[in-house]
Amino acid sequence: MRPYLVHFAQFHADFRLAEIEALARLEGVTLQYDPAQYRSDNPFMVVYLESNAAAAQLVHRAILVKEICEHWGSAETYEALFAQLKTNPERWEPYHTCSFRFEVKGFGGTLSLAEQIAIIERFSFLGFDGPIDLKNPKEQFFVYEDYGIDPTETNTTPHVIHFGRLVARSNRNIVQKFNLKKRKYLGNTSMDAELSLVMANQALARPGTVIYDPFVGTGSFLLTCAHFGALTMGSDIDGRQIRGSRTKTAGITDNVKQYGLDARVLDTLVFDICRNPWRHTPSRQPWFDAIVTDPPYGVRAGAKRLGRKTGLNPDISFRVIDGQLNHQRDDYYPPTIPYEMSEVLVDLLEFAARHLAKGGRLVYWLPTVVDEYTVEDVPLHPCLALVANSEQPFGSWSRRLITMEKVRDWEPTLSCHSPHFVPPPSQTAESPASLPALADTATGGAIYKPASGGKNALPGHFNFREKYFYARSHSPYVHAAGSTPPQRDSPPS
Amino acid sequence: MLQCHVKGCNDPSLSFPLQLKDVELEQVETEQNDDLLANLLQKIDWNALQMTATELGLASLPETIPDDPDSDEAFMIKLHEVLMEMNITQGKMECRGCGHVYPIKDGIPNMLLAEHEI
Description:
The complex is a heterodimer of chains A (493) and B (118). Chain A has 493 residues and is an alpha/beta fold.
């Protein structure tokens, strides 16, 4: 194994390790690192990989990585770094005559062009005599100066300097392609491009797989998962979101055409996930290789399911209106009732346990009130192993991207309410032929815990809608009743 | 993939596959991916697909899957055409058991149940 320096984007820090672990699994790359070396306030980490090819494969569809370099050295001063480099002069040899360029990047500090050039000059002992080519160099070398992010410190010298040779850049540019500002059809629940793409990575979206979103809304995940080659399908109880307004836009179809994904975004359907028509045949592997979704929290889009508040009244279906049975009229819409968040999630897990193919993944957002959240709130199912739990904070509330993997065939006796003992995934996962087994990596299995708390304990996301609006009405950011609070980040859907 | 899910419509021999009626079909050419088709073949109920294709007048699929489908080029081409290129833009799906009609409008099937069916 050889050392490589990963340069992460300094965004969504809690998602970065989960993403590269998902990618290692997806690409069949052996990835090792010391979890204690990972810092959420720092974009650099050394990982160990088998080869340059493995390093390139690992990051080629990464969203939260910027680039990966062969790690040549890290030190607190340039003198110490040069001493390190000089212990491996054979490493410089292949690059003595080819075209090249240097890039000096500062983290927590900026460097003027003159400063950058002065630093580059100090590396002249490497003897790179080839032409300097800023546009299309054969080789690129990176100097990273890390000043740390503590704003109270005014450092004139970096804490650490890293040096490496570029192996590969990531797929981060693709974020621009899916930028919501450029998307034709949007709703108030559309997921931002970056996280939609990270979700597709967590879901191991790849050619030959079928991915489903049971709360499809305006279809953000259909697009990003299909971009990585998966066939995608979605459903929603509210068909208006899928269709869009007839006059201005054709809804999801418009976006599918915009990104040229017609061949891979299969269908969108209208139904209530609690009363779904998906067929489940015990003798065959289920259809879905991943379920990727942002469940309705009831804040922006009210969660609904079929039902009537006052109890079902089947007679209403059979009333004759304008000479036609009510339920056969073109504009008949069955009655719906609110769908409480914790119920939504239990139903989602039950659905995934049943309809995911073994080795398939469930990737969804769990909204949490920060003060009330405990790890016990994450619902579990005996068929599903928790793989990752990454938080995106918004102050008093946050949402967590939960990734689970199906490790056991569904049986009628297994439910979210059965005793939560699940062995670590590494011992049980039978991977689909194209994927290596779930590696026992830093987080895989470590987050595991048996269920605790009595049957009546309510999770922190119970009644999320009420808590969310309560917190807002008591927030110091709200100046007067009815005024709009300052926009801190995207609100929940 | 879809079966009738009306409460009380429990006869699996009738609730699947739904019968397509009054359909407008549209063929959209797409690139063929054999790995994908091989994956889908493991999940598909062949009899149901074959029957549906025949009912739609796409009588090109054999009654049983050939022994070595991956190397049967003609078969894979037909499968791709039926499975991946045929879109139903308008029409309805009817349950052979309870008779519930699920309408398809602009390519979007409406699978919602009425109040007396849940």
